[in-house]
Amino acid sequence: MANSNTTGIGLQPSGVMGNEPATQGQSAYWIDAADGTAIYNGQAVKITLGYIKTASAAITNKTLGTLNGVFYNAATTLKPTWNTYYPGSITPANSEDITAFVNDDPMGLWIGNVDTLMGASTPAAVVATIGKTMGTGTSSGSTINGRSNVTLTFGTIDNTANSWRVLRVVEDPSNSDMTAAYCSVVVVQNLNQIINSAA
Fold first, then answer.
1. What is the mean pLDDT of the chain?
2. Is residue 138 over pLDDT 90?
3. What was the pLDDT predicted at 195?
4. How confident is the model at residue 83, as a pLDDT?
5. How far lies 89's CA from each of 32, 55, 74, 101, 139, in Å?
6. What CA–CA distance (Å, rounded) separates 48 from 27?
7. Long-range contacts from 170-178, C-beta under 8 angstroms, 24+ separation
8. DSSP per-residue letters across 42-96
9. What is the pTM of this model?
């Protein structure tokens, strides 16, 4: 049976390890004024030289969490502006930096979907996937709702090396077929930038 998802859904915060309640907590960081790279809602991010950057560019990137939106004072209107994603090349009033809100719980859980089938049968897919690590593909997204359409990349799955560790398949009958593309899985940060000693 095919999954109802037919494209990537980004990474959606969905709880905390140990079945603790999800706080949906987020923290404020900075995006450098005029940075030209778009970052979509639900896209993995990292800190580079003090600023938030995409972490989707390489599957082994250490991650901070996922972008949840941005705030800045618009240069032309001087009005406070909220956006669900960062479209790139924004220079706020007075050349300020952009405030980036990041879901950054290092023990948080995210739901993402896998770009291809994980096995010819469910038992084979479980053996090949659960407990292993995946990275994310290069992210794009919607300029209407700002949502990332990034997927987890099965083709480069590894026991330890990649950014996100697969814990289980979601409890969603319409998107839980491991033998078809876009199966939704629960992941945790494997290479968290803040608590990983090699960061």
1. 93
2. no
3. 84
4. 97
5. 10, 18, 12, 18, 17
6. 16
7. 170/111, 174/3, 174/4, 175/3, 175/4, 175/5, 175/113, 176/3, 177/1, 177/2, 177/3, 178/117, 178/118, 178/119, 178/122, 178/125, 178/126, 178/129
8. T-EEEEETTEEEES-SSTT--B-EEEEEEEEE-TTT--EEEESSB-S----GGGP
9. 0.93
